Amino acid sequence: MLIAWSKQSYDPVLWGVPKGSYASNPNGPCRTIEFRKMVQALNCIGLRVVLDVVYNHLHGSGPFDENSVLDKIVPGYYLRLNRDGCIEQSTCVNNTASEHFMVDRLILDDLLCWVVQYKVDGFRFDLMGHIMKRTMVKATNVLNGLSKDTSGVDGSSIYIYGEGWDFGEVEKNRRGVNASQFNLRGTGIGSFNDRIRDALLGGSPFGHPLQQGFVTGLLLQPNDHNHGSKADQERTLAGSKDHIQVGMAANLRDFVLTNCDGQEVKGSEVLTYGGSPVAYALSPTETVRVVRVFLMNYIWLLSILLPVIHSSTSTRPRDQLLSLSQVNYVSAHDNETLFDIVTLKTPIEMSIDERCRLNHLATSIIALSQGIPFFHAGDEMLRSKSLDRDSYNSGDWFNRLDFSYNSNNWGVGLPPREKNEKSWPLIKPRIGDPSFKPQSTHILSAVENFLNVLRIRYSSPLFHLRTANAIQQRVRFLNTGPSWIPGVIVMSIEDGHEGVPGLSQLDPIYSYIVVMINVCPTAVSFAIPTARTRTFELHPVQVVSSDEIVRNSTYEALTGCFTVPPRTTSVFVEPRNT
């Protein structure tokens, strides 16, 4: 979970320079001093800083452009050229060539500078797939090798992740082995899992905006878009469930599960609609502190920002969690916010209460999955950009975050023409309808629900297992095969018992966990024969939740039947003391 996120600048003229527009004076040493003070202040309140780095392109090129620097030093060397000698532009402008030795060296030196001189705690690589794998592996090794004795930095706590998209001139290793999703397995470098995002929301950011997915109403609450026949929708929904389950198992390529056809398959044998494997992660790799510190401090920070639901969770964070190579997410800064995309894809007649529940349900799936959970800033408060799909240049008017929780910024105007005009006919009736705007009570409830699911994640080590073998041994998905109940995912996580052969004991409090996700508009019951006579109960965090709906979740020991209310994620635990 990434808390403080600073950006190096998306149109870099020079790498290694804090962006001057954030400084009190962009000239002179102010930007450097103030950036260092900012990192220090954030660290003092328990937050870590991740820097968004853009090494895949440069703002200027050629001998005359005032923003051209590296291309003037050695023309044609730092930038990637095509066969005609022209600069490749697939990233957006002036692609850099990390396959060249000095570009590789410059990236490594720059990363060291940010870590040693500025005490940055991690890096998110923009379009990481356009950088060579060897550069990323070198960076990981160099940074993880730092020590407090030699450089004042604990390198083992530095985390690197990025966008492992494979496209453009580097696609399929055409310029060398690039840092794409499939090439990074086993390196410990994180990459975004777009498979789980698309399965949850429907379609893709490049498809029809009304294409529904598992969470947004496919088959169960259809909108006006043509999704094909009922059989087509059933098949798509079942396939989406398989994709989500693979993602919830850390997207491990060797994880074995029962697919929608009733066959036992590996994660790598579950295919996307384009025919490529859903799973690409090899295994959880190294132990790193940074991710847990991020997430636990987020609970602590929100508990301070929201005193009405302040609780004992505002303790200082514990210090250890593994780094997985899998980053699960459902929304990020690109494209519409989670609230906006749920609002766009769900039926126009759906109530705001229902949409808010779906927003939380989507984040709960990410939070309770194995791997690293990533949340876009504002997911927890129903953040809206008024359906702006690309707000990089939309200013504070569309990008506003309201930590008073009075507004989520919905309906502040028609989003700018450049990237949104094609969707204006869909956008206008929605943002013009006052019933689509959540009230402060909706936002406060969303924040509390988000905090609760984070508390649940860190109430048990079973939600963040350390090895691929542990995930395969302990995580099971039920409600599978062709006779599944549509719209329901059931995941169990089993722990061992001290002194009993078999699984080792990891959790001193709970011996068994069942997570039941119900996206249906009605309550659903599901019986687990092996759960009969066991002592399951609703997770204590949900028992005391102000969400009356989740409190209605039940378990019947005689039949092993779990009942979950509509649009709800319920977590059942078996305490060891019973």
TrEMBL record:
Stored Pfam families: Pullul_strch_C
InterPro entries: GH, Glyco_hydro_b, Pullul_strch_C
Residue stretches in coiled coil: none
Superkingdom of the source species: Eukaryota
Domain Alpha-1,6-glucosidases pullulanase-type C-terminal: 405-574
The protein's name in its UniProt record: Alpha-1,6-glucosidases pullulanase-type C-terminal domain-containing protein
Species classification: Eukaryota, Viridiplantae, Streptophyta, Embryophyta, Tracheophyta
